[in-house]
Amino acid sequence: MPHKYLTWPTGFRAYAGHGGLREHGDDISVIASDRPAVSAAMFTKSLFAGPAVALSRAHAAGRRLRAVTTLAQNANVATGREGERNAAEVVGRVAGILGIPADEVLIGSTGVIGRPLPMDTIRAHFDAAAERGLAAYDAGPLDVARAMMTTDTRPKTAERAVGPARLVAVAKGVGMLEPDMATMLAYVVTDAALSPAELDGALRTAVDRTFHCLSVDTDTSTSDTVAVIANGAAGPVDPAEFAAALADLCLDLTLQLARDGEGATKLLRVTVERAVDPAQAKRVAKSVLNSPLVKTAVHGADPNWGRVLMAIGKNTDETTIAPDKVSVRFGAVEVYPDEPGPDTLAELTAAMRKDEVDIVIGLGLGQAAATVYGCDLSAGYIRVNADYTT
Predict the structure, then answer these.
(1) For 213, which DSSP code?
(2) How far apart are the first and last CA of the chain?
(3) Given pLDDT bands bounded at 50, 70 and 90, which one contains residue 16?
């Protein structure tokens, strides 16, 4: 969970300031290493990926990212050649302030789609920042996490330690969280020394088990980015221990993102066990997690397990699934195939009223399992998104 005294790993520094993207509060941030670094990154698969993603993909291919800058409140998507030029200009200005090559800077841009960036105010902002130099600024992870927020209700940070090294992460995201990552920007910086290949492998494994298992509303963002930058200042660490720490840190962020889903009042966790393979387990779990009828039942603490069976049954391509092999639990209470009796209904209702609701499904087919993470569906989600640009 976010901590006000959280600091960056050795060799990292950050800036956060107001650049006119929103009316009040910081909306531009930069995180940078004071020495060369190696990196790994993953991006949205959306066909409408924005200029920030296209530029960052190209820069990330060199695996030598050293800094990341984020613009909040404007996604700079569907803005044509002007959007491409503006993204490149922002990266160039950040690189100039830091005194590093532009292709060592990653850019994230998040917010409203289809609106050009207000470059006059952004230019004035960076001009002022350049006069002081980034070294004069001392924003902490919580400051950067706040500056990245759009409809988030709270900043998201996390940290872990591996030997002499630390991993510190910031993230944002509350909607458009499906199917691969999220409307999510997540940056991890570490002073561990690893090879680019070790970093890339650890990130891909972690993302597959965490951010790829996250969904709020089944919509895919145009701006999803997750990146890890390692500057090696703390020296080498065991790659397996680092990978485990990174996965744990990403799970921490995933749960924070799910709990803060737009309009969310509860964390919803769906586990499918005894599946043929992990892919089948994830598909079935996602179909339950994404069902509006399941999500509204969770919101209302209504133990309507018939909706869970419906969500399993709509996987018509899963021909190995047989109703007589399926079991369903809400919390610790089995609801199918054996309907709970009067003595357990009170326990079931209490489980549904908790801030975290677990649904566990057994398919009776094999040994594979998967867990996915999301939230309930409330009237608050409609209110946030009905008035988003007005």
Answers:
(1) G
(2) 32
(3) very high
pTM of the model: 0.87
pLDDT tens readout for residues 97-140: 999 999 999 999 988 888 999 999 999 999 988 887 765 678 99
Contact 220, 45 (CB under 8 A): yes
**Rounded mean pLDDT of 39-53?**
89
Q: Give the span between the Cα atoms of 147 and 28, in whole angstroms.
A: 6
Q: Is the dihedral of CA 308, 310, 314, 319 positive or negative?
A: positive
Domains of the chain: 12-259 (3.60.70.12), 267-386 (3.10.20.340)
Maximal C-alpha separation, the chain? 71
- The residue annotated as part of the active site, out of 10, 151, 183, 190, is 183
183 is a catalytic site residue? yes
Give me the pLDDT at residue 175, please: 59
Q: How far apart are CA 127 and CA 133, in angstroms?
A: 10
H or E element that contains 343: helix 342-352
Strand ranges, E, within 81-220: 105-112, 156-162, 165-172, 185-193
CA 56 to chain centre: 17
Contacts of 204 (CB under 8 A, 6+ apart): 40, 42
pLDDT above 90 as % of the chain: 69
DSSP letter at 387 equals T
| Separation of alpha carbons 98 and 14, rounded Å | 11
Mean pLDDT of 239-266: 91
Look up residue 108 and give its DSSP letter.
E
Q: Return the HEC string of 7-23.
A: CCCCCEEEEEECCCCCC
Among 202, 188, 182, CA closest to 160: 188
